Amino acid sequence: MDTLVTQIFNGLSVGSILLLAALGLALTFGQMGVINMAHGEFIMAGAYTAFVVQQALGAAGLSLLVSLPLAFAVGGLLGVVLEATLLRRMYHRPLDTLLVTWGVSLVLQQLARDVFGTAGVDVPSPAWLSGPVEILGFTFSRSRMFILLLAVAAVTTVVLALRYTSLGRRIRATVQNRQLAESSGISTRRTDMLTFFIGSGLAGVAGVALTLMGSISPNLGTSYIVDAFLVVIVGGLGQLRGAIIAAFALGVAQSWLEYSTTASIAKVLVLAAVVAFLQFRPQGIFRLRTRSLV
Amino acid sequence: MTAATRVTAATRVTALLRSRYAVGLGFLAAAVLLFAVAPLLLSGFRLGQLGRYLCLAMVAVGIGLAWGRGGMLTLGQGVFFGIGAYLMAMHLSLADAGPGGTPAFMTLISSDGVPWWWEPFRSGTVTVLAILVLPALLATVLGLATFRRRVRGAYFAILSQALAAAFAILLVGNPATTGGSTGLNNFVGFFGFALRDPVNRQMLYFIAAGVLLLMLVVARQLMVSRYGELLVACRDSEERVRFLGYDPATVKTVAFAVAALMAGVGGALFVPIVGIISPNDVGVVPSIALLIGVAIGGRTTLAGPVLGAIVVAWAATTLSEQFPSGWTYAQGLMFMLVVAFLPGGIASLVTLRRRRSATPAVGRTA
């Protein structure tokens, strides 16, 4: 019983990290069809933002709260610059955006190496997040709990914003029918830019969350990007609820398999499971119904 | 010069470039360069480096076929390259250890001896057969599993990338049987020939050059055949091909399998020439790095991927020796600029007139 609860909690925790990393992708890849390989580096940029804020402010508790919105802005700005300079001209060839953004990620990684050094740096977590917390007789790590809550909060905000705000309506309209949205007076350019800002900003938030898990290094992003894309694919494009289910399913599967086998075998088994799953549902858990042949 | 005459002149040049004689002459020139000029001009060490680039160029020929012609952006060629390379490395390690012997690195890590799945590769024949069959077989299985279910485009690219990630993790995670992150190295002999002997090293280079030319012939025949037309058609409009009664999944799987075979052979020759294979050569990053040469040279052409791969590999060795961080920036910028602004690669500047087959599947890949 004890191990079961611990395993499920570990799975949810891994899932919540995946979800934070994948949520932004679900917007940029899922809604706009851009394959942003530099998303992982936006996560890394968010993590280093937390590091810099910590260096400047000192106090761990305050700097965490300051760095969350700041990392959102840093990630978002990086995304907007990328969208405005390179991706805007490439919406009609989505596969090529993958290679272009891979180039961006190489440059950003090397930049981080030159600025912050190759070795990992630590961002000490505040006192109120270190140590375990006891709930119903089970002990959980406070920082993992915080990340779980952060993921839930981020997802709720995005879902509510997409559903109820005018920006959300504009985003959905642009995704569903670009021409019609445009002729109804929506500036699809601005909408694209804002979607990219939010999606990339969420990567920055994910980066701050990752500083609670351990030291950060310039190749922080590469370890999450593949898994994050798998989450979006399994979840189904253009569907946030799919990404949520997929993130927690992959997280639980991953940590359970890691517990019963080894970390490397678990990775391979999860991938095999994803390929097998796509045999049954090639378009993910939920799919957008369209009349297009593809 | 009016526009009309410019077009006819361009057409004539293109026709000349495409003609049978021109292709034959190109092959002849390449053969002379590889077999006569390079060995005369380059030192043994530089010739070995060129041999390494040729192995990477073999992978590039396959990528050109699968990605440029078939529209399958495969980010996992490192896996097939790695399978070929590790099979060869296993055989060389076992052969060095002698009949019934255990490779040195295994005895250092554990006392379990040679695992059962290593045993078949004591035989050279089995190894060569496995190198030719296993990567292509894996590609066929994966190709059928994904293409039949119409998983394509970005989905396929990301799945292939996940495959490369899983492969590298698997290799690192099992140091007792795969050498872990150090990989396999310190090979003494190659099918009975001492690898230290410069004559044998030159022989290896000649083998690589010959195999690369052979692959180019095969790729050219595939491209000009009816199958080649069908492959381009699948890239440009899969639905239309299906409506015409063909099965795009089979067409694409064949190209994917041929690309995997080429990558596997490239990997197998890489091992004796370079002397080491490690997860650093087969993971996510090297798999994508293989694409940049193809993109620069011109993904849809025959010679473009090969020349691009050789030039990029050469630049990587030369520049990263002097400016390690500069090379990463250069690589990143090449990806950004070439793919965004020159999707046809250098070849699209040379060909003058945009032909159907030279135009990348812009806007139809979604």
TrEMBL record, chain A:
Cell compartments where the protein resides: Cell membrane
This protein's record includes keyword Transmembrane: yes
Domain of life assignment: Bacteria
Membrane topology: Multi-pass membrane protein
Keyword Cytoplasm in annotation: no
A Pfam family the protein falls into: BPD_transp_2
UniProtKB keywords: Amino-acid transport, Cell membrane, Membrane, Transmembrane, Transmembrane helix, Transport
Parts of the chain that traverse the membrane: 12-30, 68-87, 145-164, 193-216, 228-253, 259-280
Family: Belongs to the binding-protein-dependent transport system permease family. LivHM subfamily.
Listed name of the protein: Urea ABC transporter permease subunit UrtB
Organism: Pseudonocardia nematodicida
